[in-house]
Amino acid sequence: MFKRLLIANRGEIAVRIIRACQELGVETVAVYSDVDADALHVQLADCAYLIGPADASQSYLNIDAIIAAAKATHADAIHPGYGFLSENADFAEKVTNSGLVFVGPRAETIRKVGNKDAAREAMTQAGLPMATGSDPVRNATEACRIADEIGYPVIMKPVSGGGGKSIYVANNTTELISAVNKVDLTTSIFYLEKYIADARHIEVQIVADNYGHIIHLGERECSLQRRNQKILEEAPSSALSAEMRQKVGSLAIRAAKSVHYTNVGTVEFLMDKNSGDFYFMEINPRIQVEHAITEAITGIDLVRKQLRIAAGEPLNVKQEDVTFTGHAIECRINAEDPAQNFLPSPGQITFYHQPGGPKVRVDSGVCAGSVVQPYYDSLIAKVIVRGRSRGEAIKVMQRALGEFRISGIKTTIDFHLEVLKDPYFCSGDIDTQFIYKRMIS
């Protein structure tokens, strides 16, 4: 195991990694921008290193500064967390070339799965089911011709990048031309795919060591989204039977094997609600925000697994050893004002009391007195609960969110409580358009 790990991130995921390292006896190095000097992850790490100003491009996205910090603090390895540089193959490559260990997949794997065009080709060759798609489009005329062949509605996606950004759905030619006009096709590459209107977003957690052993840890339901950004996640999905769960798990392992995947990752699918068919979307080569609900129903610590695998240890869990118990839900608490179209709400937290009690876990990057910066992602905490059933988990989450008190900024706590009361949500009748159809007029 490593002696010292640098965490190339901030917020709740940095705190989460620090806690895992403390349990493993690994020293931690926090990096921070000048506005994050008093941040919680900086306070909890064994040592901290200033890497630049508030502008992320000069700090948390500054590859040379991060590697220099690792060298200066005598770190053995770097954990990228999620976001920022976590899916940057050049970063992973430079970390490795610097004699450090990158906690994640190999650079060539990140590069392959990060290019959606190349990933689609690899998955097609591996026999994974794919929605009808196109080669990269070059202009509006070509996009319209392709859309006519595929049939509307279509979805336009960037070849590279993740997090649900720069994705557009078009129901007709006018909407497609409008979408094309919003992007610069001279500098960015996009492709079209048949859009499945009544779909659920199902992702499968995979874990793979460096010796060819790959397992899956079940699926997560990620259909509740706003602007293609996940809001609330569940594990397992209420829509899947045991046979469907086995099928999508096998598909995920096949996808991972096809790109020689190592470490922890997620294979994402769209499931057609009408047919029950799965369609490959992408592979996320990193820890996910929602990893905690998988931990809750399996008892497997995914961050510790990441570290052990990166340190060269073999996977000590077989597929038949994985069991699922109960139901878990995660609510992402963002510093946003739902009443103002989810406008970010930076500022100082003047009062902070997080929920506790049985079956409740909170992963947070803030405390009373913390300043929520306007420069970075608005996620400040995650509430994770577990129940013996989905219904019980909903009740536990309602109780937990009712206890959560944050003053000084606006948050999405009350918005989540409204979701949890919705009869369609409670019945499990959800899809990727649920938030827009039921919660946002």
From TrEMBL:
Ranges where the Biotin carboxylation domain occurs: 1-440
Descriptive protein name: Biotin carboxylase
Pathway linked to the protein: Lipid metabolism; malonyl-CoA biosynthesis; malonyl-CoA from acetyl-CoA: step 1/1
Reactions catalysed: N(6)-biotinyl-L-lysyl-[protein] + hydrogencarbonate + ATP = N(6)-carboxybiotinyl-L-lysyl-[protein] + ADP + phosphate + H(+)
GO molecular function, one term: biotin carboxylase activity
Subunit structure: Acetyl-CoA carboxylase is a heterohexamer of biotin carboxyl carrier protein, biotin carboxylase and the two subunits of carboxyl transferase in a 2:2 complex.
Domain ATP-grasp, first and last residues per copy: 120-311
The entry's keywords: ATP-binding, Biotin, Fatty acid biosynthesis, Fatty acid metabolism, Ligase, Lipid biosynthesis, Lipid metabolism, Magnesium, Metal-binding, Nucleotide-binding
Enzyme Commission code(s) on record: 6.3.4.14
Role, per record: This protein is a component of the acetyl coenzyme A carboxylase complex; first, biotin carboxylase catalyzes the carboxylation of the carrier protein and then the transcarboxylase transfers the carboxyl group to form malonyl-CoA.
Underlying gene: accC_2
Superkingdom of source: Bacteria
